[in-house]
Amino acid sequence: MSDNRGVVYLGAGKVEVQSIGYPKFEAPDGRPIDHGVILKVITTNICGSDQHMVRGRTTASQGLVLGHEITGEVIEKGADVEMLDIGDIVSVPFNVACGRCRTCKSQDTGVCLTVNPARAGGAYGYVDMGGWIGGQAQYVMIPYADFNLLKFPDRDRAMEKIRDLTMLSDILPTGFHGALKAGVGVGSIVYVAGAGPVGLAAAASARILGAAVVMIGDFNKDRLAHAAKVGFEPVDLTKNDRLGDLIADITGSNEVDSAIDAVGFEARGHSGGEQPAVVLNQMMEITRAAGQIGIPGLYVTEDPGAVDSAAKQGSLSLRFGLGWAKALSFHTGQTPVLKYNRQLMMAILYDRLPIADIVGAQVIPLEDAAKGYATFDNGAAQKFVLDPHGMVANAA
């Protein structure tokens, strides 16, 4: 049996790389799994969703092994795995999905009905998502492998593009889902709230979907500068508390066709304090009548660190009447990665989508994970990619 090391949550503000158990072909409840594989992790990314837990803004328990953005090499497989071979390099959707239930059969894999006893939807290394061990580690077990895993067609080509392909596990499909559900198409005027990695992925997705103008709003000067560098229109929210006026300065109109919330429940307003519903209310103000709003930003049912008792239970002060009056469409929830990842893989392989450069991918060793978390939490315009075995560094 090999050793294994992984990133472990130790309480608010603290993570540490520790020795952890080598993966077993077992479900969280101990049931044997013949449909799984064990991966040697090639890349595993730090996500903004992980940061919510590490900040202590969820009910995550100490000892949780983090990580739901995983790309790896198959090194062992169960008896029921038929479509994958040892040595295959694969992308792991962050959704744990059985492929057999009603929602999986309709491609709504973000809300699989069987992999999480507590609610619909499972994920690796995440609070309340079924207890599946996370993949910010050297090795990880993936269940329902034939259904879940996306095999890359050529190993050498995959390693050449691995900084881009690692984004297929979550943020690129999540950004694409947000843009698609916001109705982005040829000629659309688009506003994205949040210039972090998911916001940049949503902006990149809007661009390949044919948007005429893609604006990204944020308070963070470094992230806005990076957004401008990779070709988007930065909206500096420190300059005016009237978002429509800032948009009008760019397009001549204070309305957009499509709006995307890539911020989520820890949103901040001009006062500097948290205003959990501020982005959603702004989206309703600036989106044209009969427009669409995509919400890939994370919202939670329990937030122990929220600013008021209602927000602690996931209840927000929304101007829903405004949304109703304007006949707006909203779409929320976990992204069903399998619905999009193959098409996005092809866009990467054929140089249509340089997503690593767009999101500022920075490769670091697994042992530097705690430093990566701290730097990302301070607002760095980077997406940290962990390299547990040095395979990315060697490929470069």
Automatic annotation (TrEMBL):
Q: Which InterPro entries match?
A: ADH-like_C, ADH-like_N, ADH_Zn_CS, GroES-like_sf, HCHO_DH_non_GSH, NAD(P)-bd_dom_sf
Name the family the entry cites. Belongs to the zinc-containing alcohol dehydrogenase family.
**Keyword Aminoacyl-tRNA synthetase tagged:** no
Q: Name one Pfam family in it.
A: ADH_N
Q: What is its EC number?
A: 1.2.1.46
Q: Could you identify this protein by its name?
A: Formaldehyde dehydrogenase, glutathione-independent
- What UniProt keywords are attached to this protein's entry? Metal-binding, NAD, Oxidoreductase, Zinc
Its cofactor is: Zn(2+)
Segments forming domain Alcohol dehydrogenase-like N-terminal: 35-152
- Molecular function terms, GO-annotated: formaldehyde dehydrogenase (NAD+) activity; zinc ion binding
UniProt keyword Methyltransferase, yes or no: no
User: What are the residue boundaries of the Alcohol dehydrogenase-like C-terminal domain, all occurrences included?
Assistant: 197-267
Q: Which NCBIfam families match?
A: fdhA_non_GSH
| Name of the gene | fdhA
In terms of superkingdom, the source organism counts as Bacteria
Question: What broad taxonomic lineage does this protein's source fall under?
Answer: Bacteria, Pseudomonadati, Pseudomonadota, Alphaproteobacteria, Sphingomonadales
